Amino acid sequence: MTAPLSNDLLERMDAYWRAANYLSVGQIYLRDNPLLKQKLTLAHVKPRLLGHWGTTPGLNFLYVHLNRLIQAHDLNMIYVTGPGHGGPSLVANTYLEGTYSEIYPEVGQDEAGLMKLFTQFSYPGGVPSHVAAEVPGSINEGGELGYCLMHAYGAVFDNPDLIAACVVGDGEAETGALATSWHSNKFLNPARDGAVLPILHLNGYKIANPTVLARISHEELEALFRGYGYGPLFVEGSDPRQMHQLMAAALDEAHGRIVEIQRQARNAGFSGRPAWPMIVFRSPKGWTGPREVDGKQTEGSWRSHQVPLAKIAEVPEHLGLLEDWLKSYRPWELFDESGRLRADLRSLAPQGERRMGANPHANGGVLLRDLNLPDFRHYAVEVNNPGSQTAESTRVAGLYLRDVIKLNVEERNFRIFGPDETESNRLSPVFEVTSRAFTGEILETDTQLSPNGRVMEVLSEHLCQGWLEGYLLTGRHGFFSCYEAFIHIVDSMFNQHAKWLKVCQDIPWRRPIASLTYLLTSHVWRQDHNGFSHQDPGFIDHVANKKADIIRVYLPPDANSLLSVVDHCLRSRDYINVIVAGKQPQLQWMDMGSAVAHCRTGLGIWEWASNDDGDPDAVVACAGDVPTMESLAAVMVLREAFPALRLRVVNVVDIMALQAPSQHPHGVADDLFDRMFTTDRPVIFAYHGYPALIHRLTYRRANHANFHVHGYQEEGTTTTPFDMTVLNGLDRFHLARAVVDRVPSLAASREEFARFVEDKLAEHDAYIRENGEDLPEIRNWRWLIREVDA
Amino acid sequence: MTAPLSNDLLERMDAYWRAANYLSVGQIYLRDNPLLKQKLTLAHVKPRLLGHWGTTPGLNFLYVHLNRLIQAHDLNMIYVTGPGHGGPSLVANTYLEGTYSEIYPEVGQDEAGLMKLFTQFSYPGGVPSHVAAEVPGSINEGGELGYCLMHAYGAVFDNPDLIAACVVGDGEAETGALATSWHSNKFLNPARDGAVLPILHLNGYKIANPTVLARISHEELEALFRGYGYGPLFVEGSDPRQMHQLMAAALDEAHGRIVEIQRQARNAGFSGRPAWPMIVFRSPKGWTGPREVDGKQTEGSWRSHQVPLAKIAEVPEHLGLLEDWLKSYRPWELFDESGRLRADLRSLAPQGERRMGANPHANGGVLLRDLNLPDFRHYAVEVNNPGSQTAESTRVAGLYLRDVIKLNVEERNFRIFGPDETESNRLSPVFEVTSRAFTGEILETDTQLSPNGRVMEVLSEHLCQGWLEGYLLTGRHGFFSCYEAFIHIVDSMFNQHAKWLKVCQDIPWRRPIASLTYLLTSHVWRQDHNGFSHQDPGFIDHVANKKADIIRVYLPPDANSLLSVVDHCLRSRDYINVIVAGKQPQLQWMDMGSAVAHCRTGLGIWEWASNDDGDPDAVVACAGDVPTMESLAAVMVLREAFPALRLRVVNVVDIMALQAPSQHPHGVADDLFDRMFTTDRPVIFAYHGYPALIHRLTYRRANHANFHVHGYQEEGTTTTPFDMTVLNGLDRFHLARAVVDRVPSLAASREEFARFVEDKLAEHDAYIRENGEDLPEIRNWRWLIREVDA
């Protein structure tokens, strides 16, 4: 066995590890007597024992070893902690290295600080059991499992000097998100990106079960990681002295390989994907904890998952066992009288920003630089008259994004993410200046594929989301385009990122990061051949449940408003922006000046389509591109039928503007809202998604009871664009009829108009059955506009 | 090279393949001249070309080869098709084998039938491009990718004779769900379960990109699948004759291995997880399609993904190319004059239910048998007076589930699924009669772990959901228990299952299947140590967007109502049931008789807690266990403060009962609703989740404007149970104050009461900061009840 550690170093590293373990156990159990200066009594033990021990000693072990590696090579390294309930470890280690006390001065490097450290853990309003935003050095919340490895990869993209040591729990390794994360190495370029050092922590057990990867053969395990493209190194055992030497050797070897891979790629250029090192670290769950409790194996078993000695008050022997356990770390050898870690151990931690708890990449806001943004007005579609021409809105946004990439090539701080849909979503102009990133085999016949590409495409919404989060959390910028229906795949990841951002609002040392911006396109209304499975506009509802301070939702109806919104989103910080916009050719309504003004308020009256003279019989409101078109067509139908009818058209870009200002910072003032929507006239609202959301957002508005919302009713199939609106009652005829039904002065015309609508829809229905497409008068949008405009 | 196929058989199989390819191309392109009896003209070609060719020839190739295997060994086999847009293939093959025409007689086995077959594809209201519920033989919708392999495993659990041949697209193989699905073999027992034969279809490209797995080395690919625990067989090439022999040999080998694995396990008992065979099938994307179009490689490239010749009308040469392509299959050799497949080819398909399109397992409702259910009343918690005792509701449900397992052991048609949480969610009584299923290594120290277990635990909500869907779709029953927050991980899978069920309502030959029932526990209000990341009650909102016919949501406040609800759900068909119930000790309110009556209506007045004499000053309503407790405590606080105040308590179990009957079949009639909630009194509604949902559900009710809903406001941290309610304004004091603020007769007391509430909350706040737990008077629920009861 190689023995890279001298005896002295090994002893000190072991002592450091014991110190971290001691502090971890202390956090779970103690509320007094933090240095065990007195005999342990029940009064020193927390009355309610909350927390988790199982994963912690392994995390502690890795921390001291990574510290050695950092010091030996002056590494720029962050520690991404996947396993759930690893909180005590990271708190302990950032405390030992000093970072924690710098950020939280009330937790000082003395006995009082230790007391505070212990008591705050899993205490009301205190420190969570998971590695959370409150913990310095973290970019990954350990509560929902499976995202650490994608965060680690996201962190090192475009950070050539950075190494992300990423501990993957063997429990979370069973999740889908983690299982596909290993393939991230096909998108990592050793010449321009940093390195991820994955460490699979095989401690064998989840809450109450063994883990899958701990119960397959060594041969299969090794084959699996070779198959994933890694060169695995195995560190397995339970004897601390042996394990110290093994781990040190493995880390030296891994580091050497990383250096060599990077050297080759950076000197000679990228020449094929290397087999990056990774470590399989098999150690007992609850290592160094009680071997047996009440006659049952505890160390090395799932019984170590939470609190191994849970009945301190009830079972008399448990107090003694706890004291033995704490004393097994020999705290008197680790801390001086004042409670401070001894100097010879302190020197094992790196200094300043080399400390993993203080690495600025783990607090990306401090590194964040504004993007160089082109003037989005330069990409404006010329619109002399509303509806005088068509454009594919997302393609126009693609031109702008192309230049965002171009202007930030030097800064290397902007990437676009999406599941194989950049082209399909018509953002293809970006390929004029960059390619898709790929470090798998590239054939001569491939196009727009390069190890240097800045578009990250993989058929996994999880990977797109996770990489982007990692990229943003380390102080860069990004943009995620996705089919609308399938963004639900990352609902839960969105939740966790939104929660992270919300928590960070109360953590002053966490600096603002760039917002996470989604462009949802290929949306519910245009799935002509994909059909029902691709129709779901519900992500907006999901988003609306999160804190108003964090979330923004935009439905730009045309290209110029989309440009304005995208520009705004790329400048924003600490938000999650959701933009929904179609990719199909569509009529353009606003010139750039109007679009900018419209987006600034978030909603507005379209005077050119209104004839209400300040006193409408009804308001026709719309949000979303297809609803906007159908609303305007409905207005046209109504004007033809009822020339005297006074209609007002209100378009909404920023749907959070509908909410009361007390509920969302974008909410427009009540008087403005009332001026637009009136306080007593019927409002027929055509909305892109599920109608309930508009009711929810307008709930506190004066005219709320008069809002009649048409939207997606979960009806769909493989059919034409217009037929989709008909199936859901969002088409021009249903909308027009809804107006007629609610304007008192038209009461006498209702029956006749209902028949007219039925005839029109029957005519259309017969036509599509015969011809497979929409009636020409419906397909020909010019016809719509000529009339509205007149 | 082995050559298992005789020349004659090879020729006929190739002809059958050509027939399927011909029908696939025909579906994409033709609206007339289906047998190419005339020279092809533009008039024969659909005006709008929708559909996807790329994956289809490979799927067709596999189908004829699996047909041979079925015939050779009289196999019971289903075909699970993962790749997106595989619709044309499965429609073509089920048509060729006769199944399609039996189910859809209008698509007969003649020229007219062919015409209909072609024109209906990707036509408004016609046949989708994905393998969907409309396609016979399918249990997997091909629209959202990544779920085929978990569906296949779910299908074969407890189906020892069944083989699920599962084609995994190399695009979808990049998804997280699929990447972890390969590990399903650690949960498959060859003695009692059937077999999955995964076939990775490496056709190399997604929409616009190569796939990851197509661009790693052979060595890595082989290692990956060996690491996943399979013995991969490779079928690679493009020459059809060679490929026929290779595929036939690979299938013979795979089948032989499956037979041998099963023989050993069934004769000698399970003795270790075998290396199941799988096939890597590398063939060109768009195989046999146009090699080049407009000078660009098309066959064997992503350009074959959709319609390879897309501009038939615009580019004159394309029509000729299309004709050449169609003729390359020599349809005149395949179909007779009448348009029927020639008899020597027809004989290649199996007969009757051996046809993969007619296998009853793919229409599980026809195999479904009712569960043997114990009388849930036997598990009743005795409740003499409301609140006279506590119980852990989910543990009581666990007793019932234990006996469900016991009573159906022989039938082998019930399993419980959950991500390592059965014990944590206190369903542990089930382990008295069964274990967790596991076929990885089992150690002596393991407990409740066996290859014969009926509890499926893996730390992947995706796998739990996918296995369960596969199990239900093949005619069995199941139950999924999950932490509430993390069920969002499968939001998108839920969507697709709900859409599948909705579509099946209009497919008479699809027989009803058992409902998918979720028990969401470890919920938002009791995450004392898990904190903010574990707090999200939004799944209910997500569910509420789907069709009312499909979804049911229950919030039983105690054990007896939970029993009644679980029993009801296990008897139901074609629904998705969501049950939210806590696992912590909680007061019990209803005896079994009351609980059954309460659950039958879905909501009701709790007379024992009300004192309104038919004319309340306010209604205190509640849904969910924690809100129910806080509401009753609020009533107690109010009675003490205002003895003359007349309060009514309404508890809601089935929140869909709140909706108007026109919106949901469970919606109670307006007059009943009005009798309970009044039409003009304030209703203070304490709700488990995000408040907006209650407004949404009650939107059409007369008293809606007087509903004031308290619920989760996305505020949380590591804290005590009661403090969580305080943070979100759902605690007894906030609720009581909300009542006082809205009852006109109490106007004079508002200020004083507000001060009282503030004092109470401040007192509590000080106490938890000092003691780390809730005030004794709040922890001691007895105190609450004594007062309410008095």
UniProtKB/TrEMBL annotation, chains A, B:
Residues 583-783 form the Xylulose 5-phosphate/Fructose 6-phosphate phosphoketolase C-terminal domain. Its cofactor is thiamine diphosphate. It comes from the Bacteria. Its EC number is 4.1.2.-. Pfam families: XFP (PF03894), XFP_C (PF09363), XFP_N (PF09364). The keyword Transmembrane helix does not apply. This is Probable phosphoketolase.
